[in-house]
Amino acid sequence: MAVMPMNWKIHHVKSVDSTQHLLREKAVSGADEGTVVYADKQTGGRGRQGRQWDSPTGNLYCSLLLKPECSLQEAGLYAFIVAVALANTIEDIIDTDGIQPKLKWPNDVLIEKRKCAGILLETETNSKNIVTHLFIGFGVNILPQEEGDRIGLSDYAEGVLRETVLNNFLKNLEYFINIYRKNGFLEIASAWRSYAFGLGERGRARTVSGEYHGVFKDLDDDGALLLLLDNGDIKRITAGDVYFEK
Ligand code: BTN
Known about the structure:
Blueprint: E1 9-16, H1 19-28, E2 35-42, E3 60-66, H2 72-94, E4 102-104, E5 108-111, E6 114-125, E7 131-140, H3 162-183, H4 185-195, E8 202-207, E9 210-219, E10 225-229, E11 234-237, E12 241-244
Helix pairs in contact: 2-3, 2-4, 3-4
The structure holds biotin (BTN).
Biotin binds next to helix 1, strand 3, strand 6 and strand 7.
């Protein structure tokens, strides 16, 4: 696939139900690839697997449009590309000795085991099942979080601006998209592994077909999580949530 500079066109709104929804509306009206929307707050922010995404003013809520013209399976790889770009962005911003953001499969960004950012991918396909529109939504917690399983960038750095996070992220995303389009997924997978949370550790994966326990062995070449089960079999997990024991 040809490597092309992304032409990001950024729109800001004060309040919206979900930036994913707003971006879909823009796509219906013919928005170009590279259209980006971000909001001060969301009244109906959505997370993965039908969960709600709390969206008070002060964090970053953003969705961007790609038109990859690829299979659904390939579109799923963009979650890893986005995750690596986000981890890279956050790493530079927190710049704290010995603390590195981690990626929990499939694509949560954690700092010190607490969630700092999440990614939601939604697609539109044509009659041949080709992905014509890829809606990439991500939320980055910036507000300090006193307690709970969330963490914000302000817990590590002073004066973090959403626009700085967004602009740095878009530069990184373009860089990693180009790496992927030039060299394929292997380089992305190895960047993802360098941030991986729980690699080599025992955990469990909760999927629609059941719960599996084992050791997180690796990320497969197509983004699946490879779990070494207690009976010695390798189970490929392609969708679900993982939890680690430590
Ligand atoms: C997750 O970890 O469950 C994914 C969270 C994705 C949240 C973002 S915030 C911007 C965009 N709009 C939404 O409604 N959701 C995504």
